[in-house]
Amino acid sequence: MNVTTEQLFTEARTHNGYLPDPVPEATLRALYDLMKWGPTSANCSPARIVFVTSDAARARLVECMSPGNRVKVEQAPVTALIGMDLGFHEQLPRLFPHTDARSWFAGNPELIASTAFRNSSLQGAYLIVAARALGLDCGPMSGFDAARVEAAFFAGMSVKINFVCTLGRGDRSKLFPRSPRLAFEEACRIV
Predict the structure, then answer these.
(1) To bridge 6 with a disulfide, which of 11, 38, 65, 122 should be the other Cys (CB 3.0-4.6 Å)?
(2) Extended beta strands in 66-145, E state
């Protein structure tokens, strides 16, 4: 795989519309197999992903989205729901076996929630970079009814939704003009 920084960052864009090309299951599996290697604290890996691909599931998801995001989800061949498992610590004896990391979290819901949010956000970012490395375009977004998404896709689970990301081959005619970014001096300090 010959991937460039342009493909991952400087030329990549947030897409608002997609071409009707399907994304094969093999590509979604390859995407996960790349993103899972991104680091998380204590290898906690709290992200749980639902890839919405069927018409029926897409229709359920569209009903959960804010009006401005409904068309994006309708057009995307895939929408990834990046959730965070609040029971992630139960996997730590297997994922971080050299110490009793599970005990750090047991009975501490605030630490569980903050760790799950922070690290599932990291994993969602890894998903975006991995998707771009595989030639997919992405449209990460907020703008949904979390309770409805959770009821429709994570019912009976210890998973809460973090964010949503459309995936596919982007329709470049639907891109907004490139937005500016903060300069180093505005966003960074060296101390």
Answers:
(1) 11
(2) 78-85, 137-141
